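Checklist before submission:
- one chain only
- standard amino acids only
- sequence pasted in full

Submission:
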Amino acid sequence: MWLFHIRKILAVILRLRHDEFFQDGYNQAPQEIPKQINRTIGPFIVRAYEPDSYYVLESGEDRHLEANLIYAKESKCEGNSRFHILTIVRYKHWTGRLYFAIVLPFHYLIIHQMSRQGLRN
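Returned file contents:
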């Protein structure tokens, strides 16, 4: 994905971590997504998981910011569900605030795309 290539350039400029999974993005089938606490998925660490309820991910060690992604499923009547996605960011350095301000519009696109893909699978 071209966004990961742009992120790599930004990471070099701001001296941020840019692991190899960002090279070409990462894609895992649903059955391959780890559910065990402290396992990794891309740049994130699984911190909590409850089947058909919630999934909490934490960004790996980084000097500029910490991020948590929370996916929660709300059961509605007649077997329907509503999904909630929450991103919590804590800035650790001024570069974290700058970085997130730059990527925020793309963050929404990426999260939306990942969520749609997850629902299809």
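Reviewer check: Helices lie at 2-14, 94-120.
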